[in-house]
Amino acid sequence: MKLFKNKENKKTEQEKVEERREEVLAKGRKFKYPLQWTKYRIVTNTIMIVVIVIGILVVSGWLALYQFGMTDEMLYRVTKIFPVSVASVDGQNVGFSDYLMFYRSSVISIERQSGQVDNDGSIADLRLQYKRAALSEAEEFTYALKLAKSLGIEVTDEEIANEFTRHLSIGGVERSEEGFLKIIEENFGLDKSEYEHMLYLTLIKVKVETEIDEHANQIANKVEALLAENGGNYSAVAESLGAEIEFQETGGMVSNQNIDGGRASEAFKLEPGGQSGRFVSVSGDGYYFVKLIKKTETEVNFVSIKVPFTEFDSRFSALREEGKIKEHIKIPIGE
């Protein structure tokens, strides 16, 4: 016994401190490791919950868009952030946001007036028609963007701004930007950026059509040559070119703000007997030539020749026939 006591007594103070320190640390580990395990479980459970919630949101969104065909504003805003596709055209994705933008801008008026409409069946039919038109429109613009990229065609911010400014005075009424934006919000549910996006798509498509439609350009050149030869006799040109062009006479006075692709407003810029030369229709579906016969302060009488664009529609139809347009939602064509 004495021997052991001597050994105990021979321990230095430093050794005793180290032993005491180890005892304290050993006791602390009993609390440390369970706490670390608890933190690990909390982090793991949190990650699992987040993944589950995201999964539920993704599945719910997929069902709402692709199965139930919902078109509410919240989903529209979500598709602007997350670029999901509603279809593909020749390998190019069609943005769901573009489809919903076109659809909502068309149907917004009847949705706001639905409480005043008795026939719910008619509203449902209209909505289906608008959905089909919106999807086809989004597909066409997507194809136009694809062609524009391959042709090196661009639309500048300045061109969009100029077109926006022109729209401020559509109908012969000068409007402030604030007043105009209020009108398009109330009637189409669009803000300025959305409206400018529509203008951008329209300008791109027009540029593409004028670039690729060689036949329309050739016919327009013939119209110009024939008008120069016969002193601006539109009837003679129409007789010469037949079905290649569309000849129209107003047959009397019409408003200089008549909705006719821009012909009346263009004619109003002329003096009687004057001719406009070639210009693209406001709707972008062809070239117009206009000759003014008579005008007053608010009305015009004119004749016109239209050279329709056909190449873009022909190519687009061919893609559909070849199965190169794949739609991810079911909306019957022709209904």
Give a written overview of the molecule.
This protein has 335 residues and is α+β, with helices and mostly antiparallel strands. The protein folds into three domains: 12-65; 82-212, Triger factor/SurA peptide-binding fold (Orthogonal Bundle), CATH 1.10.4030; 214-309, no CATH class. 61% of the residues lie in helices and 12% in strands. The protein has twelve helices and eight strands. The protein has helices spanning 2-9, 13-67, 73-81, 96-112, 120-151, 157-167, 177-188, 192-212, 214-229, 234-241, 263-268, 311-321; strands at residues 85-89, 92-95, 246-249, 254-255, 279-280, 286-295, 299-308, 325-327. Helix 3 runs antiparallel to helix 4 and helix 5 (120-151) crosses helix 8 (192-212). The chain is elongated, with a radius of gyration of 35 Å. The relative contact order is 0.09.
